[in-house]
Design a protein that fits this description.
By secondary structure, the chain is an alpha+beta fold. It has four helices and twelve strands, in the order ααββββααββββββββ.
Length: 352
């Protein structure tokens, strides 16, 4: 090795600095103590995890839930022009409150005409009843005359056989008996005819009475009342609008009868049964409400859809279905007046 090489190596060694890195933290305990602490922490974690797992097995929860209520549509039963509207959107009304009126002039005239028709039909029935009674009396008289004529004919026939009277006199009584029998038959036919006419008249009277009742009902239908207490919504009726039977004019939300529809996964229904206690957390109010499981739907939500899945078509994909569960809110709770159908909630069912 040359002197130049030795000098180069010496310069490199002198310029090189060996740095010893001292650890920033060193355990301040012995190995036995550290192991004991680690074992204690592991035991705490295991116990806490076990308790958390057991607690998670005491309930089933879902956030696929909302508040529901009965929403009653209000519609007209008759044709007509809306004359007055007495309520506004979001107004609270009580059951039986007057909501709107339809022009009633035409229906009032129909009531008058139907009443006149019923009176006329009743008068016709009365006349025919009198005619039937008269025909019945005439038939009775004709029958009595016929019986007497038959007796006279038989008596003269016996006298004729004994040659007490002449044959000419006997023929007169026989002819009179035949005439009386014919009159009796004619009276009976006339009475039957009156009876049939009376039956038809009575049917016409019943039809006229039904028409009068329907006309009165239609007149009453011109005033539209609230079918339940609640808040008015979807008001589309206006004064001057032409109403048609079955056309929705507004809707009423019945707030006094609220429930929650919670769509649980089918795998969550193993231990959910009607009657179990539940807690409803309302997102908008950040409040919890007590409730009870009321019932479980008979089919999944997909089966109630417009186009339910058809697995037999070959397009089968296994998807966990959701089953609607109805949960009834318990009465006499604070803040329930602030709840509205459609609010998102989180439903928790406490398993027994």
């Amino acid at each position: 090795m040359t002197a130049q090489s030795r000098r180069t190596i010496a310069v490199a060694q002198s310029s090189t600095k060996v740095m010893l890195i001292k650890p920033e933290w060193q355990p301040r305990c012995g190995g036995t103590r550290c192991a004991a602490i680690a074992m204690a922490l592991l035991a705490v974690a295991l116990i806490g995890g076990a308790r958390a797992w057991r607690y998670s097995q005491t309930y089933e929860s879902t956030d696929d839930a909302e508040i529901n209520a009965h929403i009653g549509p209000v519609s007209s039963r008759i044709y007509g022009t809306v004359a007055k509207v007495y309520v506004e959107e979001n107004q609270y009304v009580k059951k039986g409150a007057l909501l709107a009126e339809i022009d009633a002039h035409g229906y009032a005239d129909a009531v008058a005409r139907a009443g006149a028709g019923e009176d006329e039909a009743a008068a016709t029935v009365g006349e025919l009843e009198s005619a039937v009674e008269a025909a019945r009396a005439q038939l009775a008289a004709a029958a009595a005359t016929g019986i007497q004529a038959c007796r006279d004919a038989h008596r003269w026939s016996d006298l004729q056989k004994g040659r007490i009277v002449s044959a000419h006199e006997g023929e007169q009584y026989t002819t009179a008996a035949r005439i009386a029998a014919a009159n009796t038959a004619a009276m009976r036919a006339e009475m039957v005819s009156y009876q049939k006419a009376l039956l038809a008249a009575e049917a016409a009277r019943r039809a006229a009475h039904a028409a009068a009742v329907q006309a009165q009902l239609n007149l009453g239908y011109t005033r539209i009342y609230a079918p339940m207490s609640g808040i008015v919504g979807k008001r589309s009726v206006e004064v001057g609008q032409r109403a048609q039977p079955g056309e929705d004019l507004m809707a009423i939300v019945h707030r006094e009868n609220l429930w929650v529809t919670a769509n649980f996964k089918e795998t969550q229904l193993r231990r959910i049964h009607p009657g179990e206690r539940a807690t409803i957390h309302v997102d908008s109010l950040d409040e919890d409400f007590d409730a009870r499981v009321e019932s479980i739907a008979g089919a999944s939500g997909a089966k109630y859809s417009v186009l339910p899945p058809e697995n037999a078509t070959g397009n089968y994909v296994r998807v966990i279905q959701r089953i609607p569960v109805r949960i009834r809110l318990l009465p006499d709770q604070q803040e329930t007046s602030s709840l509205r159908p459609g609010m998102s909630v989180e439903a928790t069912v406490w398993l027994q």
